[in-house]
Specification:
Helices cover about 15% and strands about 50% of the residues. With about 140 residues, it is an alpha+beta fold. Strand 5 and strand 6 form a beta hairpin.
């Protein structure tokens, strides 16, 4: 009986040790630089409100981890400009920088992560509270 009880405690301790150990989430793991290279370039696209032919967003992602994004919700109301840095994990695109509107100097802080998908030449992500679909140009 003592051997069985000892075995029970060894198994229980082992299970608890594995259960409470910290694991790095895939979501937080940085991507391989070759995968990040896939986003480098110029992208143009639209959100769900606008027609695909309008291309109201233009995003340029550079190899050095910086990016520039121009967009408008309605060309008669306002246009915006973002400049900053980007990082990617397996599930998140993080943008940190400044943006401004109507040609003003970017001065409003932007620091957000959003889910994204990148399949071939199509990039989908949430930016400025809007879901965008961009195509590599």
């Amino acid at each position: 009986m003592k051997k069985l009880q000892k075995l029970f405690w060894v198994v229980l301790t082992s299970v608890m040790a594995v259960s409470f150990s910290s694991c790095n989430s895939e979501e937080d793991e940085p991507l391989d630089p070759c995968v990040v290279q896939n986003i480098v370039g110029t992208w143009k696209g639209h959100n769900i409100i606008q027609a695909a032919s309008d291309d109201p967003m233009c995003a340029k992602f550079y190899e050095d981890g910086t990016c520039e994004i121009w967009w408008y919700q309605n060309p008669l109301l306002a246009s915006y400009y973002f400049t900053g840095e980007y990082t990617m994990t397996k599930k998140k695109l993080h943008l940190k920088g400044l943006f401004g509107d109507q040609g003003s100097r970017p001065s409003i802080e932007y620091d957000r992560s959003a889910d994204y998908t990148l399949k071939g030449d199509v990039l989908k992500f949430r930016f400025d509270l809007t879901d965008w679909t961009l195509t590599r140009k």
